[in-house]
Amino acid sequence: MSEATGKKPIDVAVGILMKPNGDVLLGQRPAGKPYQGYWEFPGGKVESGEAILDALKREFVEELGVHILSASAWCGVEHVYEHAHVRLHFFISREWQGEPQSLEGQAFAWQGAVGVSPLLPATIPLLACLDQLRYP
Ligand SMILES: Nc1nc2c([nH]c(=O)n2[C@H]2C[C@H](O)[C@@H](COP(=O)(O)OP(=O)(O)OP(=O)(O)O)O2)c(=O)[nH]1
Questions:
Q1: What Å distances lie between residue 69 and 10, 26, 58, 77, CA to CA?
Q2: What is the position in ligand 1's atom list of the atom closest to the CA of 40?
Q3: 44 CA to middle of ligand 1, Å?
Q4: Which of 40, 51, 60, 98 matches a 20 to 30 Å C-alpha distance to 12?
Q5: Which atom of ligand 1 is nearest to the CA of 121?
Q6: Is-above-0.80 flag for pTM?
Q7: What fold, for 10-134?
Q8: Digits of tens for pLDDT over the chain (136 positions)?
């Protein structure tokens, strides 16, 4: 049994910035974090008492210098890792201000068909749904 099994889930706000042509932004997890070097959609843990959408906006400013102007809740995924039991709240945003900057030293990439790898395990199954949305 993993250490995280049975622990209270941690809420994580995750944002998918989507350009009009369908390209989405992914970032690479920096050194020192669990799953370092894996690719993910930007986001992070919701702080105590914080609304999930506020956490999303905060993380995007902190990590990328991007101000999300609007975002729609897309789906929720629960996953138990060795390091944590996470509840991921995915949002899609088509309206933001600012060009993404690497404020935490992380690599990032705009992707059509997602070609970066490896991806965080809980994120992989969502790509097929995302492609149906982007390329109907
Ligand atoms: N941002 C993000 N996190 C994801 C995705 N898929 C997935 O399983 N996760 C998991 C990995 C982590 O266990 C958790 C995010 O936590 P984190 O440690 O990156 O959050 P944080 O930036 O607030 O971290 P911290 O340094 O403040 O502790 O969610 C995804 O696509 N994007």
A1: 25, 19, 12, 24
A2: 31
A3: 5
A4: 98
A5: 8
A6: yes
A7: Nucleoside Triphosphate Pyrophosphohydrolase (3.90.79)
A8: 556 666 789 999 999 999 999 999 999 999 999 999 999 999 999 999 999 999 999 999 999 999 999 999 999 999 999 999 999 999 999 999 999 999 988 999 999 999 999 999 999 999 999 999 999 8
